[in-house]
Write a structure and sequence with these properties.
It is a single chain. The chain has 754 residues and is an alpha/beta fold. The chain has five domains: 189 residues, Rossmann fold (3-Layer(aba) Sandwich); 73 residues, Orthogonal Bundle (Arc Repressor Mutant, subunit A), CATH 1.10.10; 156 residues, Rossmann fold (3-Layer(aba) Sandwich); 159 residues, PCRA, domain 4; 53 residues, Thrombin, subunit H (Beta Barrel). The protein contains 28 helices and 22 strands. It has a seven-stranded parallel beta sheet. Helix 5 packs across helix 9, helix 6 packs across helix 7 and helix 13 runs antiparallel to helix 26.
C-alpha cells in the first residue's frame, strides 16, 4: 500500500498523527473527530510503511464491539488475518495472557471467569462462612469494596485497617473471598487485570519477552483507564516501547467506576518526549451544536484544551423548553418526535437522553400512549438473563466440578429436594476440610452425615452431572449445549412456567444452542471448545447482545450514550439537583464530571438538539420544584431559541429559612412563591414580546393559575396549562397525569386545588 493511499481520506491533523515518527504519542481526539479511523490507520501505517511486524502490535480498546470493528478495518486495509494481531479489550487480552501462562499465574489450566452475579454469590457464601450478619455486612457493598481494591492493584495482605474495626472486617472478607476463588479455580473480572499485571511484575523473563514483542502498544479511550489498567499499560510499555494512546479528557465520565481523567496528564510525565496531536475537526454535528459544546466545557478547569469545529453547516439553533412538569416535558418530547417523523426522519434517528434511569418511566408512558415504538438502550442482554446463566452454570459444572458458584446456582434448580440444612452440612464439610462443594458433597454422602432423603437427592445431582459429562464428551459444541440444557431439566422447568415469560425463557435457551452453533474459536487456543465458549459468554456479557428492534425511538442514560450519535437528540431533565446531580453540586471534581457528561450529551446530536427542564417534577413520589440547570446558562444565548416564552408559575412556598439550611431559590430544588426560578437566564427568553420580563399569567374564574395542581373527580390529578376568559364562561386546559390534556368549563369542572 502506498502512503498516499493510506492518508488520502484523512484531514491534516489526522495525517500528522498517523504518519508521525514512532515514539510516545498522545492524540487528543474530540467528539466526532474520527479517532477510530486514526487508530486503525496508525496500525496500518506502522505495518505497511514502517516495516513493523503485525506480531509486535498490541491494541487495546474498551468493548468487544470496538475491538471487532478495529480488527475488521485492519483486515480490509492490509488484507491481514485478524488473528495476527493482539487486538481486544483489557479484560480480553488479560484473559488471553493468563490462558497462555496459567501455571506461572498460579491458576488451574481450566480456570473459569465469574460474572458479577456469580461473584456476588461467592461473597454471600463467604459472609455466611465467617458468621457475619449480612444485614450489617451487605454482600453487594463488600463486592464493591473487593473490586475497588483490585482496580487499585491492592491485595488483602497489603491493606492496613488503620485501627478501624469495620475496615478490618472488610479486609478479612476480601482475604476469605480470595481463598474461596483459589480453591474453586475461578477468577472474577477485576482479577483478570490484577493477576495478569502481577504475572508480568513477578516474572521478569516473561515481562521482558512481551516488552520485546509488543514494541507498539496502542490504547483507545485512554481517559477511561483506571489505576490497574494504567499500570498494566505502563509496565508493558517499559522504556523501550513506543506507545500511541488516544483519548479525550473532556469525555471522561466514568469516575464513579474508577476511571481517572488525570491518567492523560500522567502519561506525559511517565513518557518524556511525548508528542501531542489534537483532532478538533468534527464530522458529526452542526456548527451551532459544536459552539454550544465548546462554551459549556470551557467552564471546566485543568483541561488540556481543544476547540471543536466543522466545515459543515451552521445548522438550527438549540431549542429549549420549560415544561410545567415531567408529563408536560414527556408530551413535548413525543410531539417533537412525531413532528420529525412527519418530516421524513426515522424513529431510530431520535434519541431521548437522561441523567437518571428513574426519569424514563414517564417518557415511556407518553410514547406508549402515542403508540410510538421505543427501545431502552442498555437493558438486560442475552448472556445476563437468568435462564441463560442457569444453563451456563450447568455447562461450567460439567467442565469443572470445583466451580462452587455454579454448584450453588443449580444444585437445586430445578427443585430436586436438596434443602438448606443439607447444603449447610456440605458447606461446613467443605470449610472444615478445605474441599470444593462437589468434593464436600461426595464426602458427606460417604460419611453418612446427611439425612437419607438429602443424601439421595444430592447423590442424584452428582450422578446427573457425571452422566451429562459422559454423554457430551466428544460431541460438537452446539450438541453439548443442547444435551445439557435438555438433560438438566431446565427446558421442562421453564416450559411449565405459564404465559409469555416462560415461552421467552425457552426461546432464549434454544437461542443459546444457536449461539454455540455459530461460535468460532480462536485458532491458537489451547482450551477445549466448551471452555472457550464459556469464557466467551462471560466476556461478552454486558456487550451489545440485544435483539434487532423495529424502527424505534432510542432511550438511554447519558452514560450509555457515549460513543453513539443521533440526528435528533432530546436531552431532558436539565434541572439543578437532577443534572447536575445533587450530590455533585458542591464538589468541584464531581461538578466538572457532570459537565463533561453534559458535553457528551450535547455532542451526541448531529442536526437538531432539544434541551428541556420542568418547573415541577415528581421523583420517587415527591413533588420537587426545580431551577434550570446551570449548564443551560453556560450556553451562549445567541445559540438558543425558546420554543415558547417561559410563563411565570405560582408555586407554594418551598424551602424557606428552615432548619435544613436551604433557602428559597438556592441551588437544587426550591424557589420563592410566585417568583422566577433563581437559576433562570435573567428572563431573557426569545419569542417573548419583552425578553427582559416574564409574561404574567392570565387569571380566570375560581382564581386558577398556570401551573397549579388540581384534582378532578373523573380524570384525577393534573396541572393547569391555560386559563381563558372570566366568570362563568372561563375555560381551563389541564394536563391530567393519566388522561392527558382536557379543556373544561370551569363552572362545571369542580376542580379541587391541591
Amino acid at each position: 500500500m502506498q502512503p498516499e493511499d493510506l492518508l488520502k481520506h484523512l484531514n491534516e491533523a489526522q495525517r500528522a498523527a498517523v504518519s508521525a515518527l514512532p515514539g510516545p504519542i498522545l492524540v487528543l481526539a474530540g467528539a466526532g473527530s474520527g479517532k477510530t479511523r486514526v487508530l486503525v490507520s496508525r496500525i496500518a501505517w506502522l505495518i505497511s510503511q514502517e516495516g513493523v511486524s503485525p506480531h509486535s502490535v498490541l491494541a487495546v480498546t474498551f468493548t468487544n464491539k470496538a475491538a471487532a470493528e478495529m480488527r475488521g478495518r485492519i483486515e480490509n486495509l492490509l488484507g491481514l488475518p485478524g488473528g495476527a494481531l493482539w487486538v481486544g479489550t483489557f479484560h480480553g487480552l488479560a484473559h488471553r495472557l493468563l490462558r497462555l501462562h496459567w501455571r506461572e499465574a498460579g491458576l488451574p489450566q481450566t480456570f473459569q471467569i465469574l460474572d458479577s452475579d456469580d461473584q456476588l454469590r461467592v461473597v454471600k457464601k463467604v459472609v455466611k462462612a465467617l458468621e457475619l450478619d449480612d444485614t450489617r455486612w451487605v454482600p453487594k457493598d463488600l463486592q464493591y469494596f473487593i473490586n475497588g481494591q483490585k482496580d487499585e492493584g491492592r491485595r488483602p495482605k497489603t491493606l492496613a485497617d488503620d485501627g478501624d474495626p469495620t475496615r478490618r472486617t472488610m479486609i478479612r472478607v476480601y482475604a476469605a473471598y480470595e481463598e474461596a476463588c483459589q480453591r474453586a479455580g475461578v477468577i472474577d473480572f477485576a482479577e483478570l487485570l490484577l493477576r495478569s499485571f502481577e504475572l508480568w511484575r513477578d516474572h521478569a523473563d516473561l515481562l521482558a519477552h512481551y516488552q520485546r514483542r509488543f514494541r507498539h502498544v496502542l490504547v483507545d479511550e485512554f481517559q477511561d483507564t483506571n489505576s490497574i489498567q494504567y499500570q498494566w499499560v505502563r509496565l508493558l510499555a517499559g522504556r523501550e516501547s513506543l506507545p500511541f494512546v488516544v483519548g479525550d479528557d473532556d469525555q471522561s465520565i466514568y469516575g464513579w467506576r474508577g476511571a481517572r481523567v488525570e491518567n492523560i496528564q500522567r502519561y506525559q510525565r511517565d513518557f518524556p518526549g511525548t508528542t501531542v496531536y489534537r483532532l478538533e475537526q468534527n464530522y458529526r454535528s452542526t456548527g451551532t451544536i459544536l459552539n454550544a459544546a465548546n462554551a459549556l466545557i470551557a467552564n471546566n478547569s485543568g483541561r488540556m484544551g481543544k476547540t471543536l469545529w466543522t466545515d459543515g453547516v451552521k445548522g438550527e439553533p438549540i431549542r429549549t423548553y420549560a415544561a410545567f412538569n415531567e408529563r408536560d416535558e414527556a408530551n413535548f418530547v413525543v410531539e417533537r418526535i412525531l413532528e420529525s417523523t412527519r418530516l421524513g426522519a426515522r424513529r431510530q434517528d431520535c434519541a431521548v437522553l437522561y441523567r437518571s434511569n428513574a426519569q424514563s418511566r414517564v417518557i415511556e408512558e407518553a410514547l406508549i400512549a402515542a403508540r410510538i415504538p421505543y427501545r431502552v438502550y442498555g437493558g438486560l442482554r442475552f448472556f445476563e438473563r437468568a435462564e441463560i446463566k442457569d444453563a451456563l452454570a450447568y455447562l461450567r459444572l460439567v467442565s469443572n466440578r470445583r466451580d462452587d458458584g455454579s454448584f450453588e446456582r443449580v444444585v437445586n434448580l430445578p427443585t430436586r429436594g436438596i434443602g438448606a440444612k443439607s447444603l449447610d452440612i456440605v458447606r461446613d464439610t467443605g470449610k472444615a476440610q478445605a474441599l470444593s462443594l462437589w468434593e464436600a458433597s461426595a464426602t458427606a454422602i460417604s460419611a453418612g452425615i446427611l439425612g437419607p432423603k438429602g443424601a439421595a437427592a444430592l447423590h442424584a445431582f452428582l450422578a446427573l452431572i457425571e452422566k451429562l459429562a459422559r454423554e457430551t464428551a466428544g460431541l460438537p459444541l452446539h450438541e453439548q449445549v443442547d444435551r445439557v440444557i435438555a438433560g438438566s431439566g431446565l427446558l421442562d422447568h421453564f416450559r411449565k412456567e405459564k404465559g409469555e415469560r416462560g415461552e421467552a425463557r425457552v426461546e432464549n435457551l434454544e437461542e443459546l444452542v444457536s449461539a454455540a452453533r455459530g461460535f468460532t474459536r480462536e485458532e491458537t487456543s489451547e482450551l477445549g471448545e466448551l471452555d472457550e465458549f464459556l469464557a466467551h459468554a462471560v466476556l461478552e456479557s454486558g456487550e451489545g447482545q440485544a435483539s434487532e428492534w423495529e424502527d424505534s425511538v432510542q432511550m438511554m442514560t447519558l452514560h450509555s450514550a457515549k460513543g453513539l450519535e443521533f440526528p435528533i437528540v432530546c436531552l431532558v431533565g436539565l434541572e439543578d439537583g437532577l443534572f447536575p446531580h445533587q450530590r455533585s453540586i458542591n464538589d468541584i471534581g464531581g461538578l466538572e464530571e457532570e459537565r463533561r457528561l453534559a458535553y457528551v450529551g450535547v455532542t451526541r446530536a448531529m442536526h437538531r438538539l432539544y434541551l428541556t427542564y420542568a418547573e415541577q417534577r415528581r421523583l420517587h413520589g415527591v413533588d420537587q420544584y426545580g431551577t434550570p440547570s446551570r449548564f443551560i446558562s453556560e450556553i451562549p444565548t445567541e445559540l438558543i431559541e425558546e420554543v415558547r416564552p417561559r410563563v411565570q408559575v405560582s408555586r407554594p412556598l418551598y424551602g424557606s429559612s428552615s432548619s435544613s439550611g436551604h433557602g428559597a431559590g438556592a441551588s437544587g430544588y426550591g424557589s420563592r412563591a410566585g417568583g422566577a426560578s433563581s437559576g433562570s437566564r435573567a428572563g431573557a427568553y426569545q419569542g417573548a414580546k419583552d425578553p427582559g420580563r416574564y409574561v404574567e399569567p392570565p387569571s380566570g374564574g375560581a382564581g386558577m393559575k398556570l401551573g397549579q395542581r388540581v384534582r378532578h373527580g373523573r380524570f384525577g390529578e393534573g396541572v393547569v396549562l391555560r386559563v381563558d376568559g372570566n366568570g362563568q364562561g372561563a375555560q381551563v386546559e389541564v394536563n391530567f397525569e393519566h388522561s392527558g390534556r382536557k379543556v373544561l368549563m370551569l363552572q362545571y369542572a369542580n376542580l379541587e386545588p391541591i
